[in-house]
């Protein structure tokens, strides 16, 4: 689920029932059952080595240098390897290796879920699996205090390593790979190091999760993606496409205040939350309206603080959606204008007009014209600043932070920024300009970067006029000179292509 | 408005061809001028903008003034900000005399202070203003210790610049003087003299560069004229300009590249300039003086200065400014009525000089958003403060757009039973109260007078969230909250 302004309630989880179809998927053995001892674990844990090249959001026609990311993976039924998305993203060459062996086995990413940091790999040479085994999944979430073991190939050696610890917390937390998503995590005190990512975390030999992040400044805190998230991922891809986590798109607030309840005419036993805004394009749009009071979700009563109870434990109401797939329905019981009724929401894939999550496996959108560099505002672009949440330019931070809160997305689906000017005679009076938000080009209001490209390319006047948010004076370029210099500017600055424009992609797609 | 570095057009003697018209000898004797120097010790208490019913611990600062009239002292306004007690002292007299601010104009950073006790002025005489000062002219800075001993420091005028005055949003002429004050901090009115009179009062001092910036005599004169007219000293121009150096801009406007002037990039909604000057005009002459494309005019003595100096120092609110603009390819002569700066063209005022406007209703602390509130986030406020507030303050701070004159926020909620469910609210903007759009702080009281159905409804901008307070019992709840939290 995405962050919202609502306070999070700390929750403890116990048994989570998985849908029968998913359970069947996880149980089918591919080969004869071998007892789960160390030998089997070693034969099921692999090293994943990824040659990466990250895009450069500061100079989007370039990329950063080539690097190497090493992580771990676990073989699951069906001759597939489960690992973390951040280990295999932006890949130029991917291989898997077995313990203490340098024989590389080229692999490819069959499915990737950037919104929950998971990926499934296939090895091109199926012979890879001849002398391996697989590990089964656990069907229960671990309990606090349970002892677990993390296996993998962290730094410090070539053979498999194991660390042991206990489950210290189970809670919702931010997944730093996408940056904006919150899902369940299991926190353990076993040491997790770079290289452990993507490796299995086991309880009694069964996978209770995939190791995926640690807090660099804290000791003995490692995060594990739990089976609820892994299981959902595997169920999602069963139809051949990863659809991702759907979002209701509701801003809702508590109904704890007696005066507010009185005004709404709510009797004390009617509990629920009030919807103040419904985001266009999200799943609940059209079914739920601002002002609706949500009483029940899928038959579960919603309490005044927005929580529901499942199996004796409290969760935020979004938990119901966390467990569902795109295409499924969510049923609400609501009060609208004083009348009780039902509302059915069909969960849709999440497609956002602003790249609020970190993007992977694709190039930044950009357009360079007469030395002016344009790119849509995105989390990745903000991350080019150190401590970006405080230090990035205030206008960009405002549009990013308040994009939904102040409903800025309606007027400006993409916030196109003129990030800087590559000096050339035609633009020499504007060289110092940086990070200005474009409002109009040649009289045309700019809703996204395609608008911007069209406004430049379809211009018939002698000048290009670019206007910005706030009150800076417009940039004015003589059209003929700009056209003449455009090519030489690209050459001078080593820009192979003057643009990359791509439609929004779903969380599991690559370009 | 953006926190860009001040655009200082510093003109140093070496670069200027003008020779001083007469070589003035360093004043050997300034005895006469001690007779106008006044030491002012100010006790003050700042407002705590994030806890607006309280003030900070009392503190004190000291600076200087000069006797300007029989019973009046002139000083820089910054010295007397938030004053609770002002004590005046003079040379060779150990008594301290209570004084009060008689007149203050924050935009020009000058104030008049009156001492009630007539005895104070015995032996003192008003200073003469010396406006005829030039590059490289020597000046002497005079100061007085607490012991009432006087000290003087020699310096010289090294340049002039049009800068933003402290506590002001206007840009005015200042003189730069090179002086070594030997480790003293300064900037609260140290007078600089020649034997012919007062050249200026120091409003800032950079000890690492040995550079003092003065409010010059010409600006002091302006202030005194304003006092005599009982008018603010600095007008509101009503429109914003930017340099038009790019010849393409002129081509685009249909003008030949030889036409010099600045580009009008916006007009303040609701100002008297609206409808007269238009965005896209090229402003070429102001009050009969030519402006170049960098925005400068030619001052006979100080060289090229920002043209704003002509406006802010040459006119009063209510005057008409004669300008020449180029529009649609041809020249136009216009008369722009000038307004008052206190007509508040800013959504979030940069400085406020009265107690913060706020009210507490049902424990919700409702206040006017100001620059002082933002600075309450501490030294790193430009990074740490609320991002939406910072955006408006730096990038979108002109009032009058969409009818909005100011921003009213719930800064925090003082927890009490009446506000259960809202207690985590902080720094949210109020859009409406009881269906009345809140366009400025004064709308809040009006809106709270018209609850409907026994409830007050407050609509917040963020997420369109509505919160509700009951009418019945609210007064009692507020009284309890005032007692609990020690509010007035």
Protein architecture, described:
With 511 residues, chain A is of the alpha+beta class. Chain A folds into three domains: 1-243, Thrombin, subunit H (Beta Barrel); 250-346, PDZ domain (Pdz3 Domain), CATH 2.30.42; 366-500, Alpha-Beta Barrel (N-terminal domain of MutM-like DNA repair proteins). Helix content of chain A is 16%, strand content 34%. In chain A, β24 and β25 form a beta hairpin. Chain A is flat. Chain B is built from nine helices and 29 strands. In chain B, strands 23, 24, 25, 26, 27, 28 and 29 form a seven-stranded antiparallel β-sheet that branches. Chain B has a six-stranded antiparallel β-barrel with strand order 1-2-3-6-5-4. Classes of the chains: A alpha+beta (511), B mainly beta (488). The A-B interface holds A 5, 7, 251, 253-260, 262-263, 276-277, 290, 390-391, 394-395, 397-398, 401-402, 405-407, 429-430, 463, 465, 469-473, 476-478 and B 240, 242, 244-246, 248-249, 251-252, 263, 265-266, 383-384, 387-388, 390-391, 394-396, 398, 418-422, 424, 453-455, 457, 461-470.
| First-residue to last-residue Cα separation of chain B | 34 Å
User: What is the molecular shape of chain B?
Assistant: flat
Oligomer: heterodimer
Distance between the termini of chain A: 24 Å
Mean pLDDT of chain B: 90
Low-confidence stretches of chain A: 3-32
- Specify the CATH class of the largest domain in chain A: Mainly Beta
Number of spatially distinct domains of chain A: 3
- The CATH architecture classification of the largest domain in chain A is Beta Barrel
Count interface residues per chain for the largest interface: A-B, 39 and 42 residues
What share of the residues of chain B does DSSP label as strand, in percent?
Answer: 35-45%
Characterize the main sheet of chain B.
Answer: 7 strands, antiparallel
Strand content of chain A: 25-35%
Walk me through the topology.
The complex is a heterodimer of chains A (511) and B (488).
Chain A: H1 20-27, H2 38-44, E1 45-55, E2 63-76, E3 80-83, H3 85-88, E4 91-97, E5 105-113, E6 118-123, E7 147-152, E8 161-174, E9 182-188, E10 200-203, E11 206-214, E12 222-226, H4 227-236, E13 250-253, H5 258-264, E14 273-278, E15 293-297, E16 300-301, E17 307-310, E18 313-316, H6 319-322, E19 329-336, E20 339-346, E21 366-369, E22 372-376, H7 379-382, H8 388-391, H9 394-401, H10 408-411, E23 416-421, E24 436-441, E25 444-445, H11 449-457, E26 463-468, E27 475-478, H12 479-492, E28 499-500
Helix pairs in contact in A: 1-4
Chain B: H1 31-34, E1 37-44, E2 59-69, E3 72-76, E4 83-90, E5 93-105, E6 110-115, E7 138-144, E8 150-164, E9 171-179, E10 191-194, E11 197-206, E12 211-216, H2 217-229, E13 235-236, E14 239-242, H3 247-252, E15 262-267, E16 282-286, E17 289-290, E18 296-299, E19 303-306, H4 308-314, E20 320-327, E21 330-337, E22 339-340, E23 358-361, E24 364-368, H5 371-375, H6 381-384, H7 387-395, E25 408-413, E26 428-433, E27 436-437, H8 442-448, E28 455-460, E29 466-470, H9 474-485
Antiparallel strand pairs in B: 1-2, 1-4, 2-3, 3-6, 4-5, 5-6, 7-8, 7-10, 8-9, 9-12, 10-11, 11-12, 13-22, 14-15, 15-16, 16-17, 16-20, 18-19, 20-21, 23-24, 24-25, 25-26, 26-27, 26-28, 28-29
């Amino acid at each position: 689920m995405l962050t919202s302004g609502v306070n999070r309630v700390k929750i403890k989880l116990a048994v989570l029932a998985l849908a029968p179809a998913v359970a069947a998927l996880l149980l089918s053995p591919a080969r004869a059952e071998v007892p789960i001892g160390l030998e089997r674990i070693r034969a099921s844990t692999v090293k994943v080595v990824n040659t990466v090249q990250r895009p450069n959001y500061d100079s989007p026609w370039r990329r950063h240098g080539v690097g190497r990311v090493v992580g771990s993976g676990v073989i699951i039924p069906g001759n597939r390897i489960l690992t973390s998305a951040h280990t295999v993203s932006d890949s130029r060459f991917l291989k898997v290796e077995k313990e203490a062996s340098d024989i590389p086995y080229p692999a490819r990413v069959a499915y990737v879920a950037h919104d929950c940091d998971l990926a499934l790999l296939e090895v091109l040479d199926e012979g890879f699996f001849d002398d391996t085994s697989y590990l089964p999944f656990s069907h229960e979430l671990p309990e606090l205090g349970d002892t677990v073991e993390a296996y993998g190939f962290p730094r410090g050696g070539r053979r498999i390593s194991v660390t042991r610890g206990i489950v210290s917390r189970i809670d919702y937390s931010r997944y730093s790979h996408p940056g904006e998503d919150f899902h369940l995590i299991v926190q353990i005190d076993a040491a997790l190091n770079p290289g452990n990512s993507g490796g299995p975390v086991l309880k009694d030999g069964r996978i209770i999760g995939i190791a995926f992040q640690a807090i660099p400044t804290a000791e003995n805190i490692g995060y594990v993606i739990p089976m609820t998230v892994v299981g959902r991922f595997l169920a999602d891809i069963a139809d051949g496409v990863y659809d991702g986590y759907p979002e209701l798109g509701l801003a809702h607030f508590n109904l704890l205040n007696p005066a507010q309840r009185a005004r709404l005419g709510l009797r004390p036993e009617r509990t629920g939350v009030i919807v103040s805004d419904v985001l266009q394009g999200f799943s609940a749009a059209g079914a739920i309206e601002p002002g609706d009071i949500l009483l029940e979700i899928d038959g579960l009563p919603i309490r005044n603080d927005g929580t529901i109870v499942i199996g004796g434990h409290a969760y935020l109401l979004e938990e119901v959606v966390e467990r569902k797939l795109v295409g499924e329905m969510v049923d609400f019981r609501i009060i609208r204008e004083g009348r009780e009724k039902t509302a059915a929401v069909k969960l849709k894939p999440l497609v956002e007009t602003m790249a609020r999550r970190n993007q992977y496996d694709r190039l930044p959108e950009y357009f360079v014209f007469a030395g002016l560099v344009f790119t849509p505002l995105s989390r990745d672009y903000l991350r080019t600043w150190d401590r970006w949440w405080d230090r990035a330019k205030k206008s960009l931070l405002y549009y990013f932070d308040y994009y939904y809160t102040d409903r800025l997305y309606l007027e400006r689906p993409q916030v196109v920024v003129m990030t800087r000017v590559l000096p050339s005679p035609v633009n020499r009076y504007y060289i110092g300009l940086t990070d200005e938000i474009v409002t109009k080009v040649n009289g045309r209001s700019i809703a996204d970067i395609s608008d911007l490209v069209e406004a430049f390319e379809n211009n018939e006047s002698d000048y290009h006029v670019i206007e910005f948010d706030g009150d800076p004076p417009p940039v004015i370029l003589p059209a003929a000179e700009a056209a003449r210099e455009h090519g030489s500017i690209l050459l001078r600055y080593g820009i192979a292509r003057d643009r990359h424009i791509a439609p929004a992609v779903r969380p599991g797609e690559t370009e | 408005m953006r926190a860009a570095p001040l655009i200082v057009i510093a003109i140093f003697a070496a670069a200027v061809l003008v020779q001083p018209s007469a070589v003035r000898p360093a004043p050997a004797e300034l005895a006469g001028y001690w007779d106008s120097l006044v030491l002012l010790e100010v006790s003050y208490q700042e407002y705590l903008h994030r806890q607006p019913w309280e003030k900070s611990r009392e503190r004190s600062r000291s600076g200087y003034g000069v006797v300007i009239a029989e019973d009046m002292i002139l000083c820089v306004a910054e010295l007397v900000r938030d004053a609770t007690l002002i004590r005046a002292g003079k040379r060779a007299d150990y008594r301290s005399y209570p004084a009060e601010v008689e007149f203050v104009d924050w935009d020009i950073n000058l104030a008049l202070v009156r001492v009630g006790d007539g005895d104070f002025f015995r032996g003192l005489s008003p200073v003469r203003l010396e406006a005829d000062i030039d590059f490289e002219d020597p000046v002497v800075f005079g100061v007085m210790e607490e012991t009432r001993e006087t000290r003087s420091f020699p310096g010289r005028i090294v340049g002039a610049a049009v800068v933003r005055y402290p506590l002001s949003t206007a840009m005015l002429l200042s003189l730069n003087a090179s002086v070594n004050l030997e480790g003293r901090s300064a900037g609260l009115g140290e007078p600089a003299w020649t034997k012919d009179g007062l050249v200026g009062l120091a409003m800032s001092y950079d000890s690492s560069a040995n550079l003092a910036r003065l409010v010059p005599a010409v600006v002091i004169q302006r202030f005194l004229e304003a006092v005599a007219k009982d008018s603010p000293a600095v007008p509101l121009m009503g429109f914003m300009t930017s340099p038009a150096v790019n010849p393409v801009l002129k081509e685009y406007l249909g003008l030949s590249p030889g036409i010099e002037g600045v580009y009008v990039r916006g007009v303040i909604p609701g100002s008297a300039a609206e409808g007269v000057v238009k965005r896209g005009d090229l402003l070429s002459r102001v009050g009969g003086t030519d402006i170049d494309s960098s925005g400068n005019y030619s001052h006979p003595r100080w060289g090229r200065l920002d043209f704003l100096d002509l406006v802010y120092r040459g006119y009063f609110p209510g005057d008409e400014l004669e300008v020449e603009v180029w529009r649609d390819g041809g020249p136009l002569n216009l008369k722009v009525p000038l307004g008052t700066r206190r007509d508040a063209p800013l959504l979030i005022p940069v400085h406020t000089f009265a107690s913060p406007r706020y009210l507490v209703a049902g424990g919700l602390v409702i206040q006017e958003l100001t620059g002082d509130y933002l600075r309450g986030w501490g030294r790193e406020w430009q990074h740490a403060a609320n991002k939406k507030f910072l955006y408006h303050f730096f990038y979108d701070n002109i009032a009058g757009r969409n009818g909005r004159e100011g921003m009213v926020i719930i800064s925090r909620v003082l927890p009490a039973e009446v506000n259960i469910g809202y207690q985590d609210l902080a720094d949210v903007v109020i859009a409406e109260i009881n269906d009345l759009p809140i366009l400025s702080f004064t709308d809040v009281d009006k809106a709270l007078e018209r609850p409907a159905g026994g409830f007050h409804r407050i609509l917040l901008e963020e997420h369109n969230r509505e919160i509700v307070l009951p009418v019945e019992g609210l007064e009692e709840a507020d009284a309890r909250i005032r007692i609990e939290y020690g509010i007035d």
